[in-house]
Design brief:
Length: about 300
């Protein structure tokens, strides 16, 4: 372990262990339906708070990823066999939870010809049938070299399309070696081309060795792709084998990032040490809709 990897966590990054009855109720329902969640697999620090509110990010396409990003705690190796019944199980579980908003993500499945795109579409369709009032946010892989995969997912009409760039382009080789930064930017741009009304979202981690200017450039790149919503959170090292934490970014710096991002035109920004892609996703989606309505009203008043 390097010296930097043993940096002491500051007080603002600490969270309480989950103990509430509501948390255990959500956990039991997820286990009963044999669902995977990124909350557990990625060791999210917000799991206690989110599960107590019946908020969970469901991870489809198995629990083993075909890539080995150095920031991620999800298992890497030979992926699980695709479960054709998973869309039905997910839809049934979410109907019992009675969620107003749900986030669906997945591991990377480079072994599948479509990267799992049709499976995403089936999950969205199942949720629509069993929980028609639930809004759906998806957080997808990059579908690298999977021709036509993105179109399949967009055609299923989720309410929010999220794809994270994760870090600045200079650090991709050491942090996210299986991905390509500009492919991710182009994917987000393509989503808007296919469906201009679909909200798009992306996020990145800080504390990996990036500079402020590099973060500002990522903001510009995402705005050039017409991305609506940006999340920025502190990277936390899952194990000594993962990429080390280079520094803990102070809360005031996150406020600066939020101010800068809003100035660049994002409709929604969530920037804090504990911010994660799906943290407070339901509440943020409502604010996102309000922001777009305000923007449309302002434009109509001008013309």
């Amino acid at each position: 372990m390097t010296e930097r990897a043993s940096l002491k966590k500051p007080d603002w990054i600490r969270v309480k262990a989950p103990v509430s009855q509501e948390y255990h109720g959500t956990r039991d329902l997820i286990k009963a339906h044999k669902l995977n969640t990124v909350c557990e697999e990625a060791a999210c620090p917000n799991i206690g708070e989110c599960w107590a509110k019946k908020h969970a990010t469901i991870m489809i396409l198995g629990s083993v990823c075909t890539r080995s990003c150095r920031f991620c705690n999800i298992a890497t190796g030979r992926p699980d066999q695709l479960d054709p019944h998973e869309p039905q199980r997910v839809a049934e579980a979410l109907a019992k939870l009675g969620l107003s908003h749900v986030v669906i993500t997945s591991v990377d499945r480079d072994d599948l010809s479509d990267g799992g795109a049709h499976h995403f579409a089936q999950v969205i369709k199942g949720i629509r049938q069993m929980s028609p009032n639930t809004t759906i946010e998806i957080l997808t892989p990059d579908f690298l070299r999977k021709e036509g995969a993105l179109e399949v997912v967009v055609e299923a009409q989720p309410d929010v399309y999220n794809h994270n760039v994760e870090t600045v382009p200079r650090l991709y080789a050491s942090v996210r070696p299986g991905a390509r930064y500009y492919h991710s930017i182009n994917l987000l741009h393509r989503v808007k081309q296919l469906n201009p009304n679909l909200f798009t979202k992306s996020g990145l981690m800080v504390g990996l060795g990036e500079t402020k200017q590099e973060v500002y450039q990522v903001m510009d790149d995402l705005r050039s792709a017409d991305v609506d919503f940006l999340t920025i959170g502190q990277y936390l090292q899952p194990t000594p084998q993962h990429h080390e934490v280079m520094r803990f970014v102070e809360p005031d710096e996150f406020k600066d990032y939020e101010s800068m991002a809003r100035g660049k035109g994002f409709l929604m920004v969530s920037a804090s040490p504990l911010t994660r892609s799906s943290y407070h996703a339901g509440e943020d989606f409502e604010r996102l809709k309000q922001a777009r309505n305000a923007e449309v009203s302002s434009y109509e008043n001008i013309i």
